[in-house]
Write a structure and sequence with these properties.
Elements lengths: L2 E4 L10 H14 L1 H19 L4 H10 L6 H15 L8 H12 L3 E6 L3 H11 L3 E4 L2 E4 L2 E6 L7 H13 L9 E4 L5 H4 L4 E5 L3 H6 L4 E3 L8
Helix pairs in contact: 1-2, 1-4, 2-3, 4-6
């Protein structure tokens, strides 16, 4: 058995799903006022990141923006968002999607690993045939998002823990035979857990940290 782990944002799809859906949702529900709110949230998070705020902290700030939103409405709007965005031929990064398709054709089990959340990620997972989804989980109370998370945001070391947990649940999968795809240095903990890490894009920092990793560019390449 072989597991193939893949990050989502800018690894499998050519958008940052959390920001893109934030703008889509709040504009669609609240109009110009919602657009301004989403932009304020985005600018705040970008400023925090530039100031050195850990991504895990920024992720919690992001999810607090959803406080009070009905979970069913978020789910419905996420389905509409995916239908619109995925109609764009450039939504999925062709090289990564083809690589994951080839893994599945060869019998591997694809697992998406992301700091984004289920409403946004579930349609993506279904579209590519991913068997499992490991992600951040917003807390709900009486059908309403509380702005908090159930557990930790799935970023950095939390991705390593999630991958290890999946490997424990599938003891027939030898980590040395497994693959993982990521584009950012925060994906390093996940990539380091498998024998076949793949760097998607041009992150010099990630390539330097994983000199044995394969680099997946814009062309369509078969898994090795």
């Amino acid at each position: 058995m072989r597991l193939v782990f893949s990050d989502v944002d800018e690894t499998l799809v050519d958008v940052k799903t959390m920001f893109d859906f934030l703008a889509y949702y709040f504009t669609g529900v609240y109009g110009p006022k919602g657009t301004r709110f989403a932009e304020r949230v985005r600018r705040d998070l970008v400023a925090r990141a530039a100031a050195g705020t850990p991504r895990e902290v920024g992720s919690r700030v992001y999810y607090r923006a959803w406080t009070g939103e009905p979970a069913a409405r978020v789910q419905a709007r996420a389905a509409a968002w995916f239908a619109e965005r995925s109609a764009d031929p450039g939504f999925f990064l062709a090289a990564t999607r083809r690589a994951l398709d080839l893994h599945r054709e060869r019998g591997a089990v694809v697992v998406l690993v992301s700091g984004s959340f289920p409403a946004v990620l579930e349609p993506i997972a279904a579209e590519i045939g991913a068997a499992h989804l490991l992600c951040s989980v917003p807390e709900t109370l009486d059908g309403v998002l509380t702005g908090e998370l159930v557990g930790e945001p799935l970023i950095g070391e939390a991705k390593r823990a999630a991958v290890r947990g999946m490997l424990r649940r599938h003891p027939a999968a030898d980590p040395a035979d497994c693959h993982a795809y990521g584009d950012h240095i925060s994906d390093l903990p996940m990539l380091a857990e498998v024998g076949h890490p793949v760097v998607v894009g041009d992150s010099a920092e990630l390539v330097a940290a994983l000199p044995h990793a394969r680099v997946l560019g814009s062309g369509v390449e078969a898994p090795q």
